[in-house]
Amino acid sequence: MQNQLETTEEEECVLRPMNCELNQLSRPDGSAMFMQGDTVVVAGVYGPIEAKLQKMMHDRATVETMFSPAKGPPCVDDRAKETVIRETCEAVLLTALHPGMAISINVQELQDSGGLLACAINAACLALIISSISMKFTVAAVSCMIDRESGKLIVDPDSTQIQQARVTFTYVFEGIKKDLVSCHTTGRFSENELMESLEKCRAASQNIFDFYRNIVEQYAIKL
Amino acid sequence: MANTLLSLAEKTFIVHGVDDNYRTDGRNRSEYRPMEVETKVLPHTSGSARLRLANTDILVGVKAEVDTPYPDNPNEGKLEFFVDCSANATPAFEGKGGDNLGTEISNTLTLAYQSSHVLDLTTLCILPQQKCWKLYVDVLILQCDGNLFDAVALAVKAALYSAQIPKVTTATLDGGKADIQLSDDPFDCVKLDVGSFPVLVTLCKNFTFIQIGENCVVDPTSEEEECSAASIVVAVMPNGRITSVVKTGYGSLQPSTLVKTLELAKDIGIKLNAGIMNALKEEDELGSQREIFGFLK
Amino acid sequence: MPFDQKRINGPEVSVPYSVYTDVNKSKSSKPKKSLHKRVDGREHKDLRKIFVKTGVISQAKGSAYIEVGITKVVCSVFDPREIPNKNEYSLQGELFCEFKYAPFACAKRRIHQQDAEEKEFSLVMQRSLEPAVCRQEFPNFQVDVYALVLDNGGSSLAAAIMCASLALADASVPMFGLVTAVSAGFYKDTMFLDLTVEEEVLCNSAPAKPNPPNNHGLIMQAALPQHDQISEFFLVGSINIDCIKQAIETLTVANKNICPVVQQCLVKTVLRALKRKEQEKN
Amino acid sequence: MSGQDLVSDQGLRVDGRRANELRQIRVRMGVFGQSDGSAYLEQGNTKVLAAVYGPHQPRGGGRGGNRSGTGIINCQYSMAVFSFSAGERKKRPRGDRKTQETSLQLRRAIEAIVQVELYPRSQIDVFVEVLQSDGSDYCAAVNAATLALIDAGIPIKDYSVGCTATIASMGASEEVDSKDETGSGTGIVDANHMEECTGATTLTVVALPGAPGSNYESDTDNSGLVVVAQGTGARLHLSRLEGLRQRALQGCRDTRVILDQAVRFHLTTHDPHFI
Amino acid sequence: MASQYKTIHPVKYLRDYLAQDIRPDGREFLRFRSASVNVGAISQADSSAIFKIGSTTVVCGIKAELAAPKADTPNCGYLIPNVELSPLCSPKFRPGPPSDQAQVASKTIDDILINSSALDLTDLCVCIDKLVWVLYCDLICIDYDGSVTDACLGALVAALKSLTLPEVQHNPETGAIVVDTSDRKPFPLKSLPVSTTFAIFDEQLLLADPTDEEESLAKGKLCLVIDGPELCGLYKPGGIPISQELLSKSLEKSKKRADLIRKVIEAAVTN
């Protein structure tokens, strides 16, 4: 099955074209391959499954995340990404519904051309939707940067643009009130720059939520 | 070592026996069990020895390799001990089961050989800062019947005695790079001076729940080890100097007992050193054509 | 340095700058000086000043901090937990000790993993403390003791043992008595008590003339001074038996002398705990 | 030495053997007093010690023990750090991939001969230590383990015997030479370390050769069954496999005769109640 | 009684306090614990600092070594910060390789240092393409009672600020190196980033400088790094969503806190 939907030019949208394939993997309970421009990530969700004895929590489900980089064994950087993905998914899931269980989310980077963390979170969110585990809300992650020379704000930059970045931001918004769920930054920035980028990304996140809606609808129809 | 399970009554029996200077196998407190030693059992190593002390069975192989010295000690060679507890001795050693015991014994050996009075590591240096010998002393414990420390140390001494390090014919520095050549003749080699190598003497203080006297036994069997709360492992050089003392076990000792124990250890250590050297010399006299039995006897 | 996936890694090879300084040359003059008078002005049998404090780590069940000269050690003890990876029932509880130098604690940078020396010291610590702990009180359980040397000014093993015994007491682990420990070193015929790092290095190296053999070596004696028992005796070097006898005597006295300092600290701890209890009541 | 000349024009190998000649096998059973069974085996310069413990209650209650109706065979193959003949020293005696795989293969070989159904809820430990390695280590390990099992008095169906057959690799296009005139296959048996290192193809076979005289080809009989077969080295044309197999099986049968003699000798000299 | 209640029902215990507009240690919601720093206590390190926030304690020791630079950055030195959350500091940690938490903390500290551009790695260069300084900064947590990132960064910055490096004579032709330990120069630190941690509870409740107990029960965590008028890090790894007002409020609070911490560090270093 292949679902395709590209954001149109007229929206003057700022996001790179998105593309997604749902439930391509047979083993996981839900999986998604998500592409933003040339950045590609696969996410698979297992769960709720029985938790390991040491990690079991009596009042809620444990959320485990594995982030595997495209090459080589995971190192400290990947561990940091993994933590952001895990904590974001933990906020998304209604973990109290599955006490003593575990939900395992595996994210595999296939190609990184900028905005890898955002792409990984979006892929994980789609995989969760498809796996039909109860969620509080959906989330959308948007990255943006400020150009070193022009000081221009660019939403969803690709890897060549990022080379020129002074600052990069990655924001994760929830789908209801568009409140901030996660945030990760690099570089120095002023308060105004922070607020400005936050607003722009918040607006852009709507595109991703729309994309979710469309793609899941198509998927449901095909089913 | 294999499955030594003793009841309180059995332990009391052993301890009372020790008190009367009469042990379960008929020995007195300061007597060793019979020992057998054979060197050069592994022809492919630089030196080797197999030692049996009652049922305790130890095989030691020594290998010499050319290495670069540590930057902090550029004039010294290296000596490394590795003790592997084979699962053949007891199923408890399977996998990583014997690692702790192995590390404990190899650490004790390292301490005993640490002083430069024992082995002057500078003699193992070929070219300062460039090349030196590294001696790997690898111990394989094939069977344990108590008193591993003493048996291992004796076997190590025997193996080092038999060790032959190839002679270095040329050692030159060529533009910062070392160039060394080893002698082609396998009989043209250097032997180590084991004259000051220590042996370990384990003195086992036996008491169960009630402490009895201050008697200690040498060469404990595994049953006796089971009844002991504390043992003192003393490394004694042939001249009676002590190069390391390590306490094992959970018990404690009175200062006066400790002093007595150390004195006893010194006396026994001197005798033990003489004994092993005698045995090795005797073996030497059999000449290079002697038959090597290894495990076939 | 081997690449570690779980840490931030530096270059493969790096050299401490002390290698390139000229200090090494002046080393030879040192032994003579310290044989008569020690660098810090102490007599040969003098101990350094000791500062001890308990309850320094809020998250631990019991903890202690000790300063001996510039040597600084912290130690923490946690609630008993079931012995991991053990199937049979063990009648006696176990003590798990971990001795670690902070990477920056010694003149030469240490790696994060425990090296052979630290593992050996962990075992020595365990053997020193075991006779003092009533292990039959917590069968099938294990008490974890962690000691970290922040600054090594010599005799850090002895300091760690004392610190651990205080931390155990602070954690209300039942004990027969306090453990104290003192180190001594021999160089030729001189015996030093409570060594500094320089003295440790000196005593570890053999004197130049081996014939007739001169003494050299380090001794660490841990004791339960209240019961007149030696709980651990750790010797490395090459020393004749008469000198060892002399050392045991001196160390036993030194251990007895330290005991009141440690006891004082415990009294304070108990008073503090009582006060806190009273406050809670009100 | 290139792969081509494992056997010289005179029909001799590097160590002077004929192609189908085994190395000298020397055996001593019952070397250890504390284990339930033990054996020491030398195959040329390959020296192996094996010990058997059990049958006993399974250890490691944490893993739930053994509640099944048959016994478990637990094997560990380990190589002493000084075992390599050629200069270098092994880093760890066991735990690396190669020894772990060999442990597993050893278990397969032992499971084939022990009547595990006789020992419900029990475990038999077989530990093998290689003291000196000079080729065909695994086969020596299997042979020693079999002897240790016999020494432990554990009923077995047959000797589990290992043997290798090695053949020099040739170009794929080369015409396959027909079977040896003797009909006992092609290649050399019981390769030593030097021969193993030539890059030739080695077929390792563990078989139950059956008592001499029994017809190994007949399917009604268990004898001649191959339990473990493993090929290493360069690729081999399929048509040459049969010849290699034959040669290895012949090696197994020869080895069995020697082992059997050793066992009988051991029992008659050490156990007066025998016969 | 209170301690039993706390053990049996930790969540409710905390909630009862928060309902009374107070925290278990007697602080108001947006009040920070007192912070203190002690510089140069460790004699064997090239520079060191002990940073305490309440009972959270982190020791930083810096060891300088010499090495060859990376080929792609021949004029840059190395700064290697590693956070060690040893089992000594809390029963949460077990012996063995660093936990995920420790790895993330190391990464965060490394990121902040790079982002803030507080130090110029070219200052660590002795001879281009040949020899540079490596600063091994080991951060060891002694007492783990919440806001450990703040304490780690504080300790690291204080230690860097008091760091002096000996003069190195490098002869590029012979490769000979002479180090003169008597002539030590202070290491230039361009700015002084300060991080502040907040815990977020239900209904957009913000707690400044949470303890370990609060941190483990919180619904989210927010970490702001302030450097002068600018920010150099905003980290919120998941947790419950926060509104714009909450973000502004925490920003304001953390600016004030940063000024205070900066003064504390500067005072300690100049002494």
Automatic annotation (TrEMBL), chain A:
One of its GO terms (cellular component) is nuclear exosome (RNase complex). Residues 15-133 form the Exoribonuclease phosphorolytic domain. GO terms for biological process: nuclear mRNA surveillance; poly(A)-dependent snoRNA 3'-end processing; rRNA catabolic process; rRNA processing; U4 snRNA 3'-end processing. Pfam families: RNase_PH. The keyword Nucleus applies. Keywords: Exosome, Nucleus, rRNA processing. GO terms for molecular function: RNA binding. InterPro entries: ExoRNase_PH_dom1, ExoRNase_PH_dom2_sf, PNPase/RNase_PH_dom_sf, Ribosomal_Su5_D2-typ_SF, RNase_PH. It is found in: Nucleus. Gene3D superfamilies: GHMP Kinase, N-terminal domain. It comes from the Eukaryota. Its main location: nucleus. Belongs to the RNase PH family. This is Exosome complex component RRP46. It comes from Neodiprion lecontei.
From TrEMBL, chain B:
Residues 31-166, 211-267 form the Exoribonuclease phosphorolytic domain. Keywords: Cytoplasm, Exosome. It comes from the Eukaryota. It holds the Pfam family RNase_PH. It is found in: Cytoplasm; Nucleus, Nucleolus. Its main location: cytoplasm. Belongs to the RNase PH family. PANTHER family: EXOSOME COMPLEX COMPONENT RRP42, EXOSOME COMPLEX EXONUCLEASE RIBOSOMAL RNA PROCESSING PROTEIN. This is Ribosomal RNA-processing protein 42.
TrEMBL record, chain C:
It is found in: Cytoplasm; Nucleus. GO terms for biological process: nuclear mRNA surveillance; poly(A)-dependent snoRNA 3'-end processing; rRNA catabolic process; rRNA processing; U4 snRNA 3'-end processing. Residues 47-174 form the Exoribonuclease phosphorolytic domain. Coiled coil: none annotated. GO terms for cellular component: cytoplasmic exosome (RNase complex); nuclear exosome (RNase complex); nucleolus. SUPFAM superfamilies: Ribonuclease PH domain 2-like, Ribosomal protein S5 domain 2-like. InterPro entries: ExoRNase_PH_dom1, ExoRNase_PH_dom2_sf, PNPase/RNase_PH_dom_sf, Ribosomal_Su5_D2-typ_SF, RNase_PH. Keywords: Cytoplasm, Exosome, Nucleus, RNA-binding, rRNA processing. Its main location: cytoplasm. PANTHER family: EXOSOME COMPLEX COMPONENT, EXOSOME COMPLEX COMPONENT MTR3. Belongs to the RNase PH family. This is Exosome complex component MTR3. The gene is LOC107227853.
From TrEMBL, chain D:
CDD domains: RNase_PH_RRP41. SUPFAM superfamilies: Ribonuclease PH domain 2-like, Ribosomal protein S5 domain 2-like. InterPro entries: ExoRNase_PH_dom1, ExoRNase_PH_dom2_sf, PNPase/RNase_PH_dom_sf, Ribosomal_Su5_D2-typ_SF, RNase_PH. GO terms for molecular function: RNA binding. It holds the Pfam family RNase_PH. Coiled coil: none annotated. One of its GO terms (cellular component) is nuclear exosome (RNase complex). GO terms for biological process: nuclear mRNA surveillance; poly(A)-dependent snoRNA 3'-end processing; rRNA catabolic process; U4 snRNA 3'-end processing. Residues 21-155 form the Exoribonuclease phosphorolytic domain. It comes from the Eukaryota. Belongs to the RNase PH family. This is Exosome complex component RRP41.
